[in-house]
Design brief:
Oligomer: single chain
Radius of gyration: 13 Å
Helix content: under 10%
Mean pLDDT: 95
Number of helices: 0
Shape: globular
Largest sheet: 7 strands, mixed
Length: 116
């Protein structure tokens, strides 16, 4: 079993920055896929950014050029650096780990609120 613990959300003004962190209780292998999703009230959970098991990085069009996903394997941590935040980025953010075995794990979620 893997536990993912998130931190770093909060309230920020438009144009500001936040960094989310997701710490795994087990080591994150380079062949695991890691991702961040977000869910606004009344909406589905959407992919924000992902590092695939091949090392490819993908971003949702809405965040390209503003958000950066990284992983620090030695710290078992995945980060989401969010710059130039907009009110429409307001949502609950969830980290996601898909192990090479196919098992999928989610973080507890953290709220990001961007004021205009």
């Amino acid at each position: 079993q893997v536990q993912l613990v998130q931190s770093g959300g909060g309230l920020v003004q438009a144009g500001g920055s936040l960094t989310l962190a997701c710490v795994s209780s087990r080591s994150i292998s380079s062949i695991d896929s890691v991702a961040w999703y977000r869910q606004a009230p009344g909406s589905q959970r959407d992919l924000v950014a992902r590092i695939s098991d091949s090392g490819r990085t993908d971003y949702a069009d809405a965040v390209k050029g503003r958000f950066t996903i990284t992983r620090h394997e030695a710290k078992n941590t995945v980060y989401l650096q969010m710059n130039s935040l907009k009110p429409e980025d307001t949502a609950a953010y969830y980290c996601n780990l898909k192990r090479w075995s196919g098992a999928i794990y989610w973080g507890q979620g953290t709220q990001v609120t961007v004021s205009s």
